[in-house]
């Protein structure tokens, strides 16, 4: 499934090794080979009948740590059932403080996951940008944004009595006390996804979300 693909793409990030997926899960948005076509699909791959797609990543930096995400960096309330107040800036410009359950900074690959479930935009593969989407924002006016390379998103926990948790591709990275920040930017290292030539972003989108 896509969870296995995320781990594999992370494992080979920064190398010249592409990763190809066989869908044994439910959604399989990263996969281009169905399980009933395993042998024929792999035979095509080993014969060189595939193409490599570069996937934009995002980097999260907090408390001296810097890690890369294939899908998303999520800043959530550290206490279930409690909102957090998140201050945020983009490109150094202050955008205020937003009460919410959290914020998602998503790559184009991750835009069809948690981001989409929260009303965020789908970003087509190849875009050098990330989507910024709030989770259950306590506002009728805040809307998702698409942020290009070169603009950093800084997220600051402004909640007096609740820590914020930073989650990278579904795994806990760190907790933020009041006043502490995480900075998210588009990464310098793309992940390499191998696909069969007929498996495009739009064919997978149609099969997964339209059909």
Short description:
The protein is an alpha+beta fold and 211 residues long. The protein has helices at residues 2-11, 38-46, 114-117, 201-210; strands at 19-20, 22-23, 33-34, 51-55, 58-62, 65-69, 72-77, 84-90, 93-100, 102-106, 129-135, 145-148, 153-157, 164-168, 171-176, 181-186, 191-195. It has a six-stranded antiparallel beta sheet, with no helix packed on it.
How would you sum up this structure, described in words?
With 211 residues, the chain is α+β, with helices and mostly antiparallel strands. It has two domains: 2-53 and 190-210, Probable inorganic polyphosphate/atp-NAD kinase, domain 1 (Rossmann fold), CATH 3.40.50; 58-186, Probable inorganic polyphosphate/atp-NAD kinase, domain 2 (Tumour Suppressor Smad4). 16% of the residues lie in helices and 40% in strands. It is built from four helices and 17 strands. The chain has helices spanning 2-11, 38-46, 114-117, 201-210; strands at 19-20, 22-23, 33-34, 51-55, 58-62, 65-69, 72-77, 84-90, 93-100, 102-106, 129-135, 145-148, 153-157, 164-168, 171-176, 181-186, 191-195. Strands 6-5-16-13-8-9 form a six-stranded antiparallel β-sheet, with no helix packed on it. The longest helix is centred in the first third of the chain and has 10 residues, at 2-11. The radius of gyration is 18 Å and the shape is elongated. The protein starts with a helix and ends with a helix. 38% of the residues are buried. The mean pLDDT is 92.
């Amino acid at each position: 499934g896509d969870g296995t693909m995320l781990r594999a793409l992370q494992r080979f990030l920064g190398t010249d090794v592409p990763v190809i997926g066989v869908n044994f899960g439910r959604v399989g948005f990263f996969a281009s080979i169905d399980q009933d076509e395993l042998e024929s699909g792999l035979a095509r791959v080993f014969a060189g009948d595939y193409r490599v797609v570069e996937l934009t990543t995002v980097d999260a930096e907090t408390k001296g740590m810097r890690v890369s995400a294939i899908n998303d960096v999520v800043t959530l309330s550290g206490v279930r059932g409690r909102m957090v107040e998140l201050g945020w800036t983009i490109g150094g410009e202050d955008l205020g403080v937003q009460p919410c359950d959290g914020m998602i900074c998503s790559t184009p690959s991750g835009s069809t996951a948690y981001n989409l479930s929260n009303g965020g935009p789908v970003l087509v593969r190849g875009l050098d940008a990330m989507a910024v989407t709030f989770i259950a924002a306590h506002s009728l006016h805040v809307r998702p944004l698409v942020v290009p390379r070169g603009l950093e998103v800084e997220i600051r926990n402004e909640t007096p009595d609740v820590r914020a948790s930073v989650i990278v591709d579904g795994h806990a990275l760190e907790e933020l006390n009041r006043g502490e920040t995480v900075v998210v930017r588009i990464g310098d290292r793309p992940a390499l996804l191998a696909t069969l030539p007929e498996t495009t972003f739009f064919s997978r989108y149609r099969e997964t979300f339209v059909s």
